[in-house]
Specification:
- This protein is mainly alpha-helical.
- It has one domain: TIM Barrel (Alpha-Beta Barrel), CATH 3.20.20.
- 43% of the residues lie in helices and 9% in strands.
- A three-stranded parallel sheet has the order 1-2-3.
- Helix 3 crosses helix 4.
- It starts with a helix and ends with a helix.
Length: 138
């Protein structure tokens, strides 16, 4: 918000942690208000508990999709830019195979109800941010 109010150029996109357990609805609302596109960082919750969630598994079974595909489709239907990371070719192929179905309004609501405020990394922790920035990606 500070960046928007104190600069002439509004950012076009803001990448923030976003997945079914950490939806940041207030941040999404503010970004939409100012025309900033929200992009999901770690849309699959870093492959953690969210991929084992029973609600998501039930929805995935209903559509014949994986939990990851359901999450990615949920992002897309919420108009959240999502770029999942994978080095496995079968997962990369599966991640793009989300355009042949639509989640129902009821299923969207079920996923929205999973928001628990659980984040992967507390980026308010300055020391953690410093350590993360020291990591070298090859």
């Amino acid at each position: 918000m500070d960046l928007i109010l104190n600069n002439d150029v509004v950012p076009a996109i803001n990448q923030v942690e976003f997945h079914p357990y950490f939806q940041q609805s207030k941040a999404e609302e503010v970004m939409r208000e100012y025309g900033v596109q929200m992009e999901a960082w770690s849309p699959l919750g870093h492959g953690g508990d969210v991929l084992l969630d029973e609600v998501l598994a039930d929805i995935a079974g209903k559509y014949g999709k994986t939990v990851a595909q359901i999450i990615l489709k949920w992002d897309i239907q919420r108009r959240i830019v999502t770029i999942p990371k994978s080095v496995h070719s079968e997962r990369i192929d599966a991640n793009i195979d989300v355009f042949d179905f639509q989640l129902s309004e009821d299923d969207m609501k079920k996923i929205n109800a999973l928001d628990s405020g659980r984040f992967i990394a507390d980026l308010r922790d300055v020391e953690l941010v410093k350590r993360l920035n020291e990591l070298k990606i090859r």
